[in-house]
Specification:
Layout: E1 2-10, H1 14-32, E2 35-40, H2 45-51, H3 57-65, E3 68-73, H4 88-98, E4 103-109, H5 122-125, E5 129-135, E6 143-151, E7 154-160, H6 165-180, E8 185-190, H7 196-209, E9 216-221, H8 222-231, E10 238-241, H9 243-254, E11 264-268, E12 280-284, H10 301-313, H11 318-333, E13 336-337, E14 347-348, H12 351-363
Parallel strand pairs: 1-2, 1-3, 3-12, 5-10, 8-9, 8-10, 13-14
Antiparallel strand pairs: 4-5, 4-11, 6-7, 11-12
Helix pairs in contact: 1-10, 1-12, 6-7, 8-9, 10-11, 11-12
Nicotinamide-adenine-dinucleotide (NAD) is lined by residues 13, 17, 73-75, 89, 92, 259-261, 283, 286-292, 298-299, 302, 340.
């Protein structure tokens, strides 16, 4: 089969980790007999440097041409000045919004081989396997008013956590559908004891649950959830939550997996269902990690696992997705580690070498 892939590598370690995923993509193409037309575009700081815009029109066109987008990360300290008019992160927020990528799937899986290399007790986190479904185009990051102004008493600023019932319904529905394909338990995370938008969220979740009598729905306050992720991570199956809560909780949850470099994500324009193709953008959950960029030490596994999600959700290639995931497991089982997940007695691998090892395992 033939597929069109837009490659948006971005800044910092983005190009290094995406290059490894592209190697795996090409290897999977040879193994399974697929042809991938891969075209690159600019986004983030790299795009601002060349065009003045964090998301040039040409990049948006490229993404719309493609079946799926493989994305690295954006962000560069040289744009950190709070007075800067345009920032690399604007490119990512804009592409999510323009492509209507409202459902951000972030699986959190603890590999047995890594369970004793984290800051947690292995018997607390072993067999952890849950899925975050984060709303991606609403909430605090996009709500209006969003501004900063001068008053006689000093500077003030406001962001708004705004949600419509339609926005809540479609993401909660995605959560229920995904829970149905797993262990049929959905945890809806909110702050309904304080926030009005959370009270609407909870009400809509209860209304939608009537269509899913086979799925157990529980509600959890976001602060309790942050604690439960550390204490009893195995209790979760699928969690659904708003944009900012999901952003923060998934960075926290990544520590269960050992490193930010282990967690993939998919940002989808529809509700996932078996045997359907949904347009999506696939990226590691981590950022551009500028301090380790160019040193060949970044972990490419999160990006390679994001490619597996791309196969599964946007190309309907379940077998290929599983083959990539199995290749990652095989390499970890053989004791190879990048420095963020290294334990005593393990074999240290750079970014490139880790990509090569996974390509080799895929071919075996
Ligand atoms: P970060 O995710 O880039 O890094 C956090 C920590 O994790 C750092 O210590 C980093 O070295 C480490 N790390 C991240 N990815 C790793 C990998 N693959 N292998 C090994 N170690 C890894 O977050 P940050 O430092 O807060 O932000 C850096 C820049 O990235 C900022 O400009 C920020 O705005 C941006 N950012 C972008 C995205 C995105 O593109 N989706 C997400 C988060 C942050």
């Amino acid at each position: 089969m033939k597929f069109k892939i837009a490659q948006l590598s971005g800044d910092g370690i983005g190009p290094e980790v995406v290059a490894q995923a592209v190697k795996v993509l090409k290897a999977a193409g040879s193994k399974f007999g697929h042809e991938f037309d891969i075209r690159s575009g600019l986004i983030g700081g790299a795009a601002i440097d060349r065009t003045g815009s964090a998301l040039p029109e040409e990049t948006l066109k490229l993404a719309r041409w493609s079946d799926a987008v493989l994305f690295g990360a954006v962000g560069d300290p040289k744009f950190d000045d709070p007075r800067a008019k345009v920032r690399p992160e604007d490119g990512l927020l804009a592409i999510r919004k323009k492509l209507k990528l409202f459902a951000n799937l972030r699986p959190v899986k603890v590999y047995d081989e890594l369970a004793d290399g984290t800051v947690f007790k292995p018997d607390v986190i072993k067999n952890t396997d849950f899925l975050f479904v984060r709303e991606l185009t609403g909430g605090l990051y996009f709500g209006k008013p969003k501004k900063r102004w001068e008053t006689s008493a000093g500077r003030k600023a406001v962001d708004s956590m705004a949600y419509s019932e339609q926005e809540i319904e479609r993401i909660v529905r995605a959560g229920f559908e995904l829970a149905r394909s797993r262990k049929s338990k959905l945890t809806s995370v909110d702050k309904a004891n304080v926030l009005e938008s959370s009270r609407l969220w909870r009400q809509v979740a209860i209304e939608v649950s009537k269509d899913y009598p086979d799925v157990l729905l529980e509600h959890m306050l976001v602060d309790t959830c942050a604690m439960r992720i550390m204490l009893t991570p195995r209790d979760f199956d699928v969690l659904v939550t708003e944009n900012t809560f999901g952003d923060i909780l998934t960075d926290e949850a990544s520590m269960l997996a050992g490193s930010m470099g282990m967690l993939p994500s998919a940002s989808l324009a529809g509700v996932p269902a078996k045997n359907t193709k949904i347009f999506g953008l696939y990226e590691p959950i981590h950022g551009s990690a500028p301090t380790i960029a160019g040193k060949d030490i970044a972990n490419p596994i999160a990006t390679i696992l994001s490619l597996a999600m791309l196969f599964r959700y946007s190309l309907n290639l379940a077998e290929e997705a599983l083959a990539v995931e199995n290749a990652v497991s095989k390499v970890l089982k053989a004791g190879h580690r990048t420095c963020d997940i290294i334990g005593s007695g393990k074999k240290s691998a750079g970014t490139n070498e880790m990509g090569d090892l996974i390509v080799k395992a895929l071919g075996e």
